[in-house]
């Protein structure tokens, strides 16, 4: 079930992101050197950059998929090479959709911009 | 013993070869093609036999086999694999190459057509695509690709080469080993191994039929003195030489691809063909080659295009040696085979589509709400959007007379922060940004370096160093790239967050819009071209006050997760105000009455602000912005055309409408206000004067209103024109509420 993700998105100076302390238990997905998606609320002052943009982010949806099912899907739909070590983060076009992938030992989190959530659900069927 | 191919099984079962002609049993000829289980162009020599397979030979008269209907079978799957080395072909050379690569610790993937893994192309990447019985394989080697596809046997190009009973020497040996009765065998050239045969000598002249006109009866050879000898037989084994099976090497030039084994052999050049069919796929004869050569086609590539030789199922495997020999015999040097391109084998539609997807169209967070309200959805501006909810007139009226809401979540939305923000925005926009006070917003155009309009939107200042910018729905992706590129080019210190997918946006508009907001808890909404933060029905929103409809409008930007809650609350709170949502059809009517242009519809790739009649959108006293030099330069040129407003009186037409209800036919009449279509030509007398870009019937004004491009004549814009064979007038815009009092409230 692809569900809307409640998260925080931060755009800040890369050094500020490198040194930030994130909420315990939260997933921290580094989308770009200056951008991070954190699956928990983050206080504005938590990032050492006065110009940082720290926003509540509900524009992504996500689904946890069992590792074997995920790999079966990705083998069919992903043209680029997946990371081997776990945990790992990767992002790119999968099945024609811009996906962000968080790999754990036994499961994979697939994150997609919510406007494409219905398409992801359809492709995963 | 290896499993039978479908072809071997059929031959052992005394079935005749399916296509006739010379059989190679190696996938190099078109002579065993058949429709198998509904799929045409199957090489029966490359498919393992299976019980129950339905085989239909392809017609020998050139009639095309049936094509698979779309949807008859599920689409093929495509599986992706990354590895170090791909080895194509598993003969001795291929096996050795794979062993050597594995010895270095490399992850090696091998493919072999005999195992049902046909490589159909090597693409840049590099990417090796193979078809297998289990679906398509997409292989991405990090290292090299080894091609070990060997060499194919040269096919005969003499009269009678269509007869059944001709096999290559290798095929003869293979058939004999598989227990296929060959009858009396005569060998031409290199003899077959393990087969009893009579050796024919001399030059191959022709094959003659038996009493069965489709079957071989004899082979005729000519000696050095020109005397012919006839060799009666049931099978001719042909050892005419080898030609490397190097299509994949010719396809992958410039990539990390290496050939090993027989694929590197120099091609044997057969004698120049004298008569008969050279290309069995396309039916090209020696006479055809002579004809195109006489017309000046002397290059192999051109002969291929002129005759279609080499374009059929075997992709030149049978004919190219003979065409090369033919062209060489005409006095030119021996030419290399032509460049090969994917695909090398016929694919089903499902195989072609394997791994492909229709581009996904994004949906706003309110998609299901629109559907629940009966909306007709359309793809517009790159999004699924409600076109209307069933009653465009009522939706329009709700905006003009009461209150309405519209899902404008598709707007491009970007937050920019940092010490360099002002410098960046001053460069991006042709009007001053620094004069914008925090809490204010401004409508802006965005120009390219040539001074042409590429987008429009709003800039709102939140603080000294933080701004929000909006862009058109269709332009948001490009805008992000544009802004980031310029930030990098200018070297400014900024943070950019594209929030197009993150923020929902609902436009509350109409003379009672403020009343609705008050009910939602916003008693002091922002003034025109101002913005502010407030909770609307409990949803945190940034409220922007501007107007695209011409009425009081508040754009509520909010977290996408809150869209449904906010939408439902607004509809509920406005129930007794007659609220109803409006779709794009009503919105386009409303905006056109106000003369608001749509970038990409009313503008073109060379639309300057001067041509658009929007010179107020640029301030040339600004020292620098993108497009400034081009605007200065083009402003010195005479204006050649301009986007103008037009109006046209009502032209009522009454048409009979026939309605079928429960089988009963009812006839009524319907009055329509005929409005020219978008794209209609504008005439100035007999002269073509322009084209209409936007058009609508204005219910409020009782006439048709339009925007369109108009050419200047003798330095002036004509006033009275003809559109759609009716008189129209050029008039100033906006058509509706020209002073803008309604929008300002």
Q: What is the topological layout?
A:
The complex is a heterodimer of chains A (125) and B (745).
Chain A: E1 3-4, E2 7-11, H1 14-19, E3 28-32, E4 35-38, E5 53-57, E6 60-66, H2 67-77, E7 88-94, E8 97-103, E9 107-113, H3 117-124
Antiparallel strand pairs in A: 1-6, 2-4, 2-5, 3-4, 6-9, 7-8, 8-9
Chain B: H1 6-12, E1 33-36, E2 39-43, E3 55-57, E4 78-83, E5 85-88, H2 92-103, E6 108-111, E7 117-123, E8 127-132, E9 135-141, E10 145-147, E11 151-153, E12 166-168, H3 169-177, E13 185-189, E14 198-200, E15 203-209, E16 216-222, E17 228-232, E18 235-239, E19 242-244, H4 247-251, E20 257-259, E21 277-279, E22 284-285, H5 286-294, H6 300-307, H7 320-329, H8 349-353, H9 367-372, E23 376-380, E24 383-388, H10 392-401, E25 404-407, E26 412-417, H11 421-428, E27 441-447, E28 453-461, E29 466-471, H12 476-490, E30 495-498, E31 503-509, H13 513-519, E32 531-536, E33 539-545, E34 553-559, H14 563-573, E35 580-581, H15 584-593, H16 628-635, E36 641-649, E37 652-661, E38 664-673, E39 681-684, E40 687-698, E41 703-711, E42 720-723, E43 726-731, H17 741-744
Parallel strand pairs in B: 4-9, 5-6, 5-10, 10-20, 12-18, 13-14, 13-18, 25-35
Antiparallel strand pairs in B: 1-2, 1-3, 7-8, 8-9, 11-19, 15-16, 16-17, 21-22, 23-24, 25-31, 26-29, 26-30, 27-28, 28-29, 31-34, 32-33, 33-34, 36-41, 36-43, 37-38, 39-40, 39-42, 40-41, 42-43
Helix pairs in contact in B: 10-15
Strand arrangement, largest sheet of chain A? 1-6-9-8-7
Strand order of the largest sheet of chain B: 32-33-34-31-25-35
Number of strands of chain B: 43
Structural class of chain B: alpha+beta
- Report the principal-axis shape of chain A: globular
Could you estimate the helical fraction of the residues of chain B in percent?
10-25%
Which class best fits the helix and strand makeup of chain A?
A: alpha+beta
The protein's oligomeric status is heterodimer
Largest interface: A-B, 35 and 40 residues
The helix fraction of chain A, in percent, is 10-25%
What's the end-to-end separation of chain B, in Å? 90 Å
Question: What amount of the residues of chain B lies in strands?
Answer: 25-35%
Q: Mind describing the biggest β-sheet of chain B?
A: 6 strands, mixed
How many individual β-strands of chain A? 9
Radius of gyration of chain B: 37 Å
Main sheet properties of chain A: 5 strands, antiparallel
> SSE order of chain A, as H and E?
EEHEEEEHEEEH
Amino- and carboxy-terminal Cα gap of chain A: 10 Å
**How many H/I helical runs of chain A?**
3
Low-pLDDT residue spans of chain A: none
Can you give the mean pLDDT of chain A? Answer: 96
């Amino acid at each position: 079930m692809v569900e809307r993700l409640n998260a925080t998105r931060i755009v800040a100076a890369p050094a500020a992101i490198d040194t930030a302390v994130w909420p315990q238990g939260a997933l921290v997905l580094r989308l770009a050197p200056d951008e991070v998606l954190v699956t928990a609320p983050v206080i504005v002052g938590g990032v050492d950059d006065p110009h940082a943009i720290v926003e509540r982010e509900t524009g992504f949806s996500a689904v946890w998929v069992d590792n074997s099912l995920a790999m079966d899907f990705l083998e069919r739909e992903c043209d680029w090479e997946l990371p081997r070590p776990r945990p790992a983060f990767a992002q790119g076009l999968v099945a024609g959709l811009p996906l962000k992938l968080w790999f754990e030992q036994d499961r994979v989190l697939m994150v997609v911009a919510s406007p494409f959530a219905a398409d992801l659900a359809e492709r995963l069927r | 013993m290896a499993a039978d191919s479908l072809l071997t099984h059929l031959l052992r079962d005394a079935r005749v070869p399916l296509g006739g002609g010379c059989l190679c049993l190696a996938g190099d000829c078109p002579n065993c093609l058949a429709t198998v289980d509904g799929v045409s162009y199957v090489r029966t020599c490359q498919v393992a036999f299976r019980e129950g397979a339905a085989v239909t030979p392809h017609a020998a008269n050139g009639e095309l086999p049936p094509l698979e209907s779309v949807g008859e079978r599920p689409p093929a799957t495509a599986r992706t694999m990354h590895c170090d080395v791909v080895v194509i072909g598993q003969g001795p050379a291929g096996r050795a190459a794979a062993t050597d690569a594995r010895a270095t610790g490399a992850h090696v993937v091998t493919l072999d057509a005999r195992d049902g893994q046909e490589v159909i192309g090597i693409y840049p990447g590099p990417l090796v695509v193979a078809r297998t019985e289990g679906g398509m394989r997409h292989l991405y080697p990090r290292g090299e690709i080894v091609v070990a596809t060997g060499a194919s046997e040269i096919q005969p190009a003499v009269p009678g080469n269509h007869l059944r009973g001709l096999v290559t020497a290798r095929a003869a040996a293979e058939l004999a080993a598989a227990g296929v009765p060959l009858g009396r065998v005569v060998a031409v050239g290199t003899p077959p191994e393990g087969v009893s045969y009579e050796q024919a000598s001399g030059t191959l002249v022709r094959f003659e039929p038996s009493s069965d006109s489709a079957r071989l009866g004899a082979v005729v050879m000519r000696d050095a003195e020109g005397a012919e000898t006839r060799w009666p037989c049931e099978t001719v084994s042909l050892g005419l030489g080898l030609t490397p099976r190097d299509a994949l090497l010719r396809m992958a030039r410039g990539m990390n691809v290496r050939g090993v084994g027989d694929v590197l052999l120099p091609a044997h050049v057969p004698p120049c063909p004298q008569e008969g069919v050279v290309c069995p796929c396309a039916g090209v004869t020696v006479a055809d080659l002579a004809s195109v050569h006489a017309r000046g086609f002397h290059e192999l590539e051109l002969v291929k295009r002129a005759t279609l030789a080499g374009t059929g199922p075997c992709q030149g495997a049978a004919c190219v040696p003979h065409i090369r020999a033919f062209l060489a015999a005409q006095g030119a040097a021996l030419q290399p085979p032509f460049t090969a391109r994917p695909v090398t084998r016929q694919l089903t539609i499902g195989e072609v589509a394997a791994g492909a997807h229709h581009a996904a169209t994004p949906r706003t967070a309110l998609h299901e709400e629109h559907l629940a309200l009966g909306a007709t959805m359309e793809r517009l501006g790159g999004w699924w959007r409600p076109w209307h909810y069933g009653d465009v007139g009522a939706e329009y009226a709700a905006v003009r007379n009461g209150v309405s809401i519209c899902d404008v979540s598709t707007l491009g939305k970007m937050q920019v922060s940092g010490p360099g923000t002002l410098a960046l925005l001053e460069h991006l926009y042709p009007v001053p940004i620094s004069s914008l006070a925090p809490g204010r917003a401004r409508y802006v155009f965005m120009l390219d370096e040539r001074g042409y309009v590429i987008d429009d939107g709003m800039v709102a200042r939140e603080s000294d160093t933080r701004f929000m910018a909006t862009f058109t729905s269709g332009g948001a992706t490009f805008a992000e790239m544009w802004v980031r590129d310029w930030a990098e080019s200018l070297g400014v210190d900024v943070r950019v967050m594209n929030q197009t997918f993150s923020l929902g946006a609902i436009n509350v508009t109409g003379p009672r819009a403020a009343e609705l907001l008050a009910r939602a808890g916003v008693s002091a909404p922002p003034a025109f071209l101002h913005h502010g933060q407030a909770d609307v029905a409990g949803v945190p929103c940034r409220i922007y006050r501007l107007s695209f409809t011409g009425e009081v409008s508040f754009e509520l930007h909010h977290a996408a997760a809150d869209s449904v809650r906010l939408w439902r609350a607004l509809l509920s709170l406005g129930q007794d105000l007659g609220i109803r949502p409006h779709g794009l059809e009503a919105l386009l009517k409303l905006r056109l009455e106000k003369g608001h242009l749509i970038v990409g519809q009313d503008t073109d790739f060379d639309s300057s602000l001067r041509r658009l009649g929007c010179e107020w959108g640029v301030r040339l006293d600004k020292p620098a912005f993108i497009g400034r030099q081009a605007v200065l330069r083009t402003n010195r040129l005479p204006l050649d055309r301009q986007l103008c407003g037009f109006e046209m009186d009502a032209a009522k037409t009454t048409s009979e409408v026939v309605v079928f209800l429960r089988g009963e036919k009812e006839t009524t009449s319907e009055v329509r206000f005929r409005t020219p279509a978008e794209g209609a030509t504008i005439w100035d007398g007999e002269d073509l004067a322009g084209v209409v870009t936007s058009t609508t019937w204005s219910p409020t004004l009782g006439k048709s209103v339009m925007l369109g491009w108009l050419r200047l004549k003798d330095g002036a814009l004509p006033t009275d024109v003809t559109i759609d064979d009716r008189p129209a007038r050029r008039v100033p815009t906006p058509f509706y509420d020209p002073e803008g009092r309604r929008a300002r409230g």
